[in-house]
Amino acid sequence: MQLHTLSVHQLSELMERKELSSEELTRAYLDQISQVEDEIRAFVTVTEDIALAQARAVDGKRARGQELSPLAGIPVAVSDNICTEGVKTTCASAMLDNFIPPYDAAVAVRLKRADAVLMGKCNMDEFGMGASTETSAFFCTKNPFDPAAVPGGASGGAAVAVAAGEAAFTLGSDTGGDIRQPAAFCGVIGLKPTYGFVSRTGLISCASSLDQIGPFTRDMTDLALILNTICGHDAADSTSVSENVPDFKKSLVNDIKGLRIGLPKEFFGTGTDPRVAAKVQEAVCKLEELGAICEEVAMPHTEYALPAHYIISSAEASSNLARYDGVRYGLRVEAEDVLSMFRKTRSQGFGAEVKRRIMLGTHALSTGNYNDYYVKALKVRTLVKQDFARAFEKFDCLLTPASLATAFKTGEKAGDSLAMYQSSACTTPVNLVGVPALSLPFGLVDGLPVGLQVIARHFEEGTLLRVGYTLEQNTDQTRPKPGLFL
Amino acid sequence: MSNYEAVIGLEVHVELKTHTKLFCGCSTEFGKEPNTQVCPVCLGLPGSTGVLNKKVVELAVKAGLVLNCKIGTYTWFDRKNYYYPDLPKGFQISQVFRPIAYKGYLDIDINGQNKRINITRAHIEEDPGKLIHSGGSIMTSHYSYVDYNRSGMPLIEIVSEPEIHSGEEAGAYLEKLKANLEYAGVSDVKMEQGSLRCDANVSVRPVGTTALGTKTEIKNMNSFRAVQRAIEYEVERQIEVLEDGDRVIQETRGWDENRGITLSMRNKENPDYRCFIEHELPPIELTPEWIADVKGTIPELPDARRKRLVEEHGLPDYDAGVITSSLALAEFFDAALKKYPDAKTISNWIMGELLRLLNARNMELSEAKITPDGLAALLELIEKGSISNKMGKEVFEVMFEEGKDPGQIVKEKGLSQISDEGQLSRIIDEVIAKNPKSVADFQSGKKQAVGFLVGQVMKATKGQANPGVVNAMLREKLAQ
Predict the structure, then answer these.
(1) What is the pLDDT confidence band of residue B1, given thresholds at 50, 70 and 90?
(2) Are residues B426 and B339 in the same domain?
(3) B223-233 pLDDT per residue, tens
(4) Domain containing B425: what range?
(5) Residue B295 lies in a domain
(6) Element containing residue A169 per DSSP (H, E)
(7) Which of A83, A321, A338 sits opposite B47 (nearest CB)?
(8) What residues does A397 pair with on adjacent strands?
(9) Residues of chain A positioned with their CB less than 8 A from the CB of B279
């Protein structure tokens, strides 16, 4: 039995029928980790002891006939910017290499309550700043479809862990595409929920107004199960909304007849790899064949979304990262006085990309630049929101590529920040608006996965599930298997 | 000196009286072990998220209203970014762009003249932690301690317009501000515990000109008196600098209480705080109805109470002003008045004995043992003639220290006054018999000789005779 390619609901059924214990499952996943991890390096920390203890506890509960959640006993991993009580949480930064949070993030609490089994913490771009997991202070993570290619980022490790069978599902965070782009690069499903739908408490902030936790899964049913677990109001997070959480399983409907799908033409621009564009076109044909009505739509401010996003996210990050000063926790580089200590700690603790963003953000907020950069970016954000609002008057959802191209080679864009930033052009507008978006694999180009992005209105994750589920049921393109590791 | 005019603006930080901090549930109690009232939120740990304390908004609105401010119905929080070890997030959450209260004023009384000081704004912000240095400053210390108990405590910063022109005006403004906030129950307003802090921006300019001179910011003043003295010193210093043909340097200066001077602390290098909206907190939206509800909970304020004491109880305006300057005094007065309905006498005892002892011992009224009921009982004893006014003061002091019943103190000290004419008559007769010369003097027209004879009676009774009664009886007997 290939336990590490099965989906959560399949594993859950096996355990339900007592054909598999959680401990056996956990050991199988730990075995897989020990087999592939040396090469693929998806994890910053593997929590073997915790995982086995949790698995045994779940088996005990099951033996006692306790009612269990669909995630009970399922191996999960989370990005290393999601706080886990007693488990090192580094944001893949030398700054927090020794940081052990005294609390669990709200999502970690929800996972624990659901009896999911924590396998470890996933590698990422440092503090979520990057699109390839190359800015991790520790090591690069490899793409399971091609070890010479990047897994995408910032939540690259979490995407790879699912693709390479090291966890049945994972949670990452998405500030500008940091779930959707690595999901596309690694051939797994990724979803950025509506801003405010999943608590940000315990998620170490990159850019507060854009960050959102979301899942990576192997199929759409799993996505529904996980959304059911992680969505919902958290009184401790002021940005959390009190919107009712529907049962997302009910949205797993194999029917998109009459669904109106907009195709924003600006997302299929000159920068798009024609082979990727062709795959997306193929998906459009399939959706039409299944009864959807697909039409082009204009979203004229799209080209300004990317620069606005980088100004806003850098500005917020420059402030959010100010707390890493060596005084209370994390790295401290001793110096003759406190100002030098600040300077040395931050100079040594942060990597080049983080410093670049802090400088960009500081510049954008400084007197004399504030109106020209930060305020202007906020205005662009409003215009982009208006573009989306207009499009959603006419369409139930929007379809775009999740990334303009397939996974690039490690090192290919490392020296070119602008090229790296542009690789998230399809995904950044979504964070500015706060709407939910799905990244769904759709076949391969030269052996590398292509991702579709489906965007819906606020709190209409159900529409995304419906589109994704219908495609999943009617094509064989949504579950590409990496040749390596599995 | 008279050729220059001082221009002063005050920045007052007031700690709001809540049980918990601004964005977390940590206690705000003063004086606890360092770093025992902290949590991930007020320590700014990675991933922590805070939630606004509703009580803070209520108290801030109340503060705004008693400072005669307009209340913003749509306001929000901003981040003020700077690095300091007492600031755990590397930014302070404040209200930079939209203060919750703005465009207010306080009317002060200067030599019987009313003067209005306009208030620019009052906004909510969080307090940083507290640093204790092993040396003189953070840069010269070998090590420093930091206590985050104060971190995240709710403050309002009240900024006045630069319309104050003397230390005396500054003092009057602060007294008024303190009294209004105290009455409204917004803050403890205790400068010595840091629940009220004041910085002064001071500049001078030639009389008749309107352009503002270069200002200095004065810090480290620990009492209203210190604020007044520091301003007076600084104004004179700046005038001297200008008179010498030099320029005032824009800087922060610290008040040295012992030496009575201000000293340069650091050149103010206009830090760029890079303020921008705090996205982790939603905006504060207030309805006019909610604001009206808060307004409805504000009790009678000092000015109204002062007026009432003058109009209803016939107190002189000065007395009423002193008594209503502190809520505790005003409450003491009202309570005493319920038991002993002579306002002026109560006022005299409060203004005289009570304030004298409080000042002498540097105490708060709440620390004194005397009660309003006790004062009323004491005044009754005096009125009945059981004890003299002078004895009353002695008894008052015991009540102030020990809080005993005045009747009991009188008994214990054997202070009761002899007013009984039968008892006195015998003693007076003896005094008359022993002092023929004085009697002769009196009878020959030297009426002042009666004073000596009263004194002799008082001496014979160890001061317990009622001097009024003795005086009348002596005159009667001598006239016979």
Answers:
(1) very low
(2) no
(3) 999 999 999 99
(4) 421-479
(5) no
(6) strand A169-174
(7) A83
(8) A261, A456
(9) 208-209, 239, 316
